Amino acid sequence: MSSHISFFKSVENYVDKAAAFTDIPKGLVEQIKACNLVLQIRFPIRVGNDYQVIEAYRVQHSHHRLPTKGGIRYAESVDQDEVMALAALMTYKCALVDVPFGGAKGGIKINPANYTTEQLQNITRRYTAELVKKNFIGPGIDVPAPDYGTGPREMAWILDTYQALRHGEVDSIACVTGKPVTQNGIRGRAEATGRGVFYGLRECVSHAEDMKKLGLEKGIAGKTMVVQGLGNVGSNTAIISQQEGDVKIVGVSEREGSIHDPNGIDIEKLLAFRKETGSIIGYPGSKHIGDARAALELPCDILVPAALENQITTENAGKIQAKIIAEAANGPVTADADPILQKKGVLILPDFYINAGGVTVSYFEWLKNLSHHRFGRLENRFQHNAFGRILDKVVEFTGKSVSDRDRELLTRGGTEIELVNSGLEDTMITAYQQIRETFKQHPGIPDVRTAAFVCSMKKISSDYISMGIFP
Predict the structure, then answer these.
(1) What is the dihedral of CA 235, 229, 351, 36, to 10 degrees?
(2) Which of 60, 129, 138, 242 is most buried, by the most CB atoms less than 10 A from its CB?
(3) Which CATH class for the 187-379+414-450 domain?
(4) Residue ranges of domains in the chain
């Protein structure tokens, strides 16, 4: 956010802007904006022969639905304001995609690269123990997940610590999501956020009248894309867009700099090149064009900032040439850069919509854990046999034959990953249609972000009213 407006304050400003297009009472708007619980933690860990005091946070923004849900990030940028803002965005995100959680977020102020695996494990386990002590974690209380700087490994440590301290709790595996598949995780979680970005973009560009205003053709195929950040979200967005959407990726940036190739960059080959050389610079056929932010200014149809917040500011907003920005990271466009881009006619798909794939599939994992059975396990074979019998009858009545390959394709039941991806696709499409409908119903709403906040706030306020808190 801008230097004089805190990240949390800028989220509040977006909410105030959206509130003007609703009839939600002022007092209820204030409750929707407020952070309900903030836990600030300090604990020591041993590093070599010395001790360090670790600063950590967990924020539960809204209890209109329980449990609360949100990732834990490990980064040196972590402070209370950032965690509060990210927790607030989780509230609006969950409401927008109809996932029944309140928003939460956690953070530990460290650079994971500065610690050994053993030290990171000690930090994670101690943090979890602090959350358990304060009743800030549990399948029906608050369910963490991975975020920047964390992954399945850390979630497995959290689960193990929780189970050690809450021995015998039957639903304990649902205390955290984003776990390894072998530790009661769910297939498809690792690429869920990137896949959600693709589904959201594909739905956005499927409306011919909206695309005409941007000077673009309807449909995702052939669109040019620039991706900033090749972490989990950026790399999966790029690979899935390329493989399933036939998108041409013309620019990529990472910490070491930006590269450009108007003929297209094969992301899987680029990732292999970076793994081998430690850098994207020098990738065959590409041109090194500057630092990590240089790629943001490349001409393209779709720009995907998938790194950290505050990447598009008043300094570079005027130079952005993309027609659509998909905020795959949290808060990549600052509050004061937003109006500059809107004035240029750029369509911004806000972070709390476009990166909601992660929390959506986390919800599926939580459901799987609470039901104690794997999606597809009970029905897969039944569907296979039922479809087989239908096909046999069709073959019998028509006298036609079906190859073994076609038979397998037509009769197999849904696997866990197919069911997860199908649920995610439906969630992203439905949410975008709700945002678009709200945008069209209120001619005064200036942009998609405001329309998305209006959608979220209406759902949250109806929850509060139905609870009888605000008659």
Answers:
(1) 110
(2) 60
(3) alpha beta
(4) 37-183, 187-379+414-450
